[in-house]
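WARN retry 2 of 3 for item q-0093 after timeout on previous attempt; input resubmitted unchanged.
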Amino acid sequence: MAGDPKSQAALALHRFGFGPKAGAIAAIASDPRGALIAELDKKGAGLVTAPDLMSSAHASRAVLDFNAEPLISLVIGLILGKLAEGSFHQALMISDHDDSVFILRPLSATIFATCLVLILWPGVKKRLGHGGAEVT
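OK item q-0093 returned
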């Protein structure tokens, strides 16, 4: 390391991006490298102890659970999207561009209602207080 002892001490104290505490630069200015090595040699250095902190396995599972549903929807949308859009346009052409055909026929109304429920269900579930993935 080049430079004066104070800048070397400041650099050593910025090792994890947290910055030095008040008075820390002056305390280690005489031997910043030795102070850093001594701190890293302490038992439990780098060990984060927080009782409410998730383990890495639980955190990874929470991220995977959070991302799983949108990923499945995306894959289904990519596979079936073009087919559904073509069928939609074909149905509109057959009905002379009368979009009431999608809600007046029993089968179409059932499919339409099911889609509407599936789209709105996450918001309703969240408002009722049942939303969110729990990791135990």
